[in-house]
Amino acid sequence: MDRYLSGPQLARLVVIDPGTRPYYRALAGRMRALILDGRLPVRVRVPAERHLAEALGVSRTTVTAAYDRLREQGYLDSRQGAGSWTALPDVGALGAENPWIASGDDGLLPMHCAAPHATSALPAAIAHAGEHYPRYALGMGYDPTGIAPLREAIAARYTARGLATRPEQILVTTGAQHALHLLVMTLLSPGDPMMVESPTYPHILDAARLRGARIVPVGVPSGGWHLDLLTSAMRQSAARLAYVIPDFQNPTGHLMDDATRAGLVGAARDCGTTLVVDETWSELAIDEVPPIAPLAAFDTDSRVISVGSASKLWWGGLRIGWIRATAAMVRRLAVFRSAVDIASPLFEQLVAARLFEDIEETRAERRRTFGASRDALAAALERRMPDWSFTVPKGGGSLWIRLEGTSAAALADAAACHGVRLAPGAWFGLDGTLEGRLRLPFTQPPQVVTEAVERIAEARVRGPYGVRRPAGPLTRV
Question: Is the pLDDT of residue 107 over 50?
Answer without folding.
Answer: yes
